[in-house]
Design goal:
Distance between the termini: 11 Å
Helix content: 25-40%
Number of domains: 2
Structural class: alpha+beta
Oligomer: single chain
Strand order of the largest sheet: 6-5-18-19-20
Number of helices: 10
Radius of gyration: 21 Å
Shape: globular
């Protein structure tokens, strides 16, 4: 894996305008950096990233099967009791999932290490599937990258095919907190994919969803919602007043309720408990567990529920080495062995392996200026070249 400097496309400003991204001549596109790209071999992509991610996804399914049959696990994850049967029934009914992004630490050698699994509300999807692919095509046309470069990026086609295979009848509703730009942009892209798959769609804000006299959720036109593609965390739904109405609503959710188990960072501790020593896993424990002593004061502390790298602390030999602020610090925590991101000239790339319907489909790289990847990280493109 190499980071290679490259000139920006001559038409970057026009591309930004076409895709609705903010652009400034001195800074480029907000959240995007094409002053460099990462180069991989096909073996690195297939053997060290895609295949391990699909194996880990299989482990995740084993974990969900175990969790829905063991209330003690759901308690450890902090999932409220009124939703236990709901999650279990969703899993047993085979409710289909759509997207997930495994965040990995990888420097091109040795096994990639799973840091987190964004299984419920992953973002950076449009940048990965569309903007990154367009960069590849235009950079090749301008001679900015070597001939015969490819990219691990079947994300768009995989999403469209997955929507087409879901047998969604009637209108597919799409909802998120529209005040969060990343969520809104990602959801709008998912809606476009659904339209391409031939579905009828209706986009709305989560706070515009109503409840009728029969316990059915409705949209702004008072039509009953039967399928809801949401970019809104399950833990938020479960914590809100209308959340207790969800199990009886008969809405088909994408992502399905059982994803609440995998979007909880406690799953990393449970995976280690189940598959201790696996080369793609890091030693991880619920804070306070006896096994955590094995980390010998060098670990990363994370909240069970959190987003965008918030409320993370990194310790080395018991001393705090770095931290991030955020609103998620009050709940349970895990402690995880360290697998620092590689240092590429003061840039720290976090690899995001996209799973579409549980199949590895693409790669995005978010690059920050510290070992904790936060909301200021920028997406950097990649190529495959042997």
């Amino acid at each position: 894996m190499q980071r290679i400097s490259v000139s920006e496309r001559s038409g970057l400003a026009a591309a930004a305008a076409e895709h609705g991204f903010e652009y400034a001549a001195s800074e480029g596109v907000t959240g995007w950096d094409e002053s460099g790209y990462y180069q991989f071999t096909m073996a690195q992509i297939q053997d060290n990233l895609a295949a391990p991610a699909e194996e880990l996804e299989g482990f995740c399914f084993e974990l969900v099967e175990r969790a829905v049959n063991d209330q003690a696990i759901l308690e450890r994850l902090g999932i409220a009791e009124p939703f236990w049967d709901y999650l279990a029934q969703s899993w047993r009914d085979g409710d289909k999932n759509l997207t997930g992004r495994m965040d990995l630490s990888y420097d091109g050698t040795g096994p990639a290490k799973l840091l987190e699994y964004n299984a419920d509300t992953p973002t950076a999807l449009y940048e990965t599937a569309v903007f990154q692919w367009e960069w590849l095509e235009q950079a090749a046309e301008e001679g900015l990258i070597p001939e015969n470069c490819d990219q691990f990026n079947d994300v768009h086609e995989a999403i469209v095919q997955s929507f087409a295979a879901m047998s969604i009848e009637g209108i597919a509703h799409f909802a998120c907190n529209t005040d969060i730009e990343d969520d809104k942009g990602t959801l709008e892209y998912l809606e476009e994919c659904a339209k391409e798959a031939g579905l009828k769609t209706h986009l709305l804000a989560m706070n515009d969803i109503g409840l009728d006299d029969w316990g059915k959720f409705t949209d702004t036109e008072e039509d009953v919602i039967t399928t809801l593609v949401k970019l809104y965390p399950w833990e938020w739904i479960m914590d809100e007043e209308f959340g207790l109405k969800v199990p009886a609503s008969r809405v088909r959710f994408i992502e399905p309720p059982w994803k609440a188990i995998l979007s909880n960072k406690g799953m990393l501790a449970l995976l280690w408990e189940m598959f201790e020593g696996h080369p793609n896993l890091l030693p991880t424990f619920f804070e306070g567990d006896a096994g955590a002593d094995a980390l010998a004061g060098t670990y990363v502390r994370k909240p069970l529920l959190g987003r965008q790298g918030a409320n993370i602390q990194m310790y080395r030999d018991g001393a705090l080495q770095g931290s991030s602020d955020g609103p998620y610090g009050d709940g349970g925590q895990i402690v995880q062995g360290c697998a620092p991101l590689p240092d590429c000239g003061g840039r720290y790339p976090l690899l995001g392996l996209w799973l579409i319907a549980s199949k590895a489909a693409g790669l995005c790289i978010r690059e920050g200026q510290s070992l904790i990847t936060g909301p200021d990280a920028r997406t950097v493109p990649h190529v495959i070249l042997d």
